[in-house]
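Lecture 7 notes: from sequence to structure.

We start with a single chain of 198 residues. Read the sequence below before looking at the structure.
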Amino acid sequence: MGFMPSIANECVHASSEGRLHFALPAEDLCDLVAVLRFVQQIETRMEAPLTEQKARPLIHSLRPGNAGQFNLDHYSEVLAKRFTKTFEAALKKKVEGVSAKYRRQVRDLLAQRAVTAERPAFQGANPASEPADVAALLRFAIENESNVDMHYLRATQKETVERVRPESLNNDKLFAFSESRQSYCAYRLARVRSARLL
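Now the structure, written as tokens:
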């Protein structure tokens, strides 16, 4: 209808029937197919039809009838895997950066709230070393979103001190955010030697 721009150049030739003929070096064709394979792999991993299922037919259309000694499938697959590995590393770095920023913002928000909100005084033993006192202190920390320094005996029999923000108490387990590990962890109450409310 006359809306398409003229795309003929030294690598692409338009025929009178409106078909396009590519004159690409083998390396460029390999790169093009590798990019399409990469998109296909991302679609599979994300379980989302990002290209509306157009990548696979394009790969099939671009496969030469007689590749001679040039193994297009092998080279493009290796290159696509490299692209995917680079993409996943970049995505992981981006997600870690956003997660760290989010944790900082939440921590700052909680710190501001802690300053403005008047926290009730804990009536029990602080620090606590008896199991019942430790459980009471941890319940108070959960209700008031407070940090706790815990002396904890690991499975290796090594005692450590961890600063945690308790989230929930479930039977014999405490689930808390560990400041040192920057992740959520589960702790057995029987291994908590003492706890101090901050």
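The chain has two domains: 12-90, 131-197. Keep this in mind for problem set 3.
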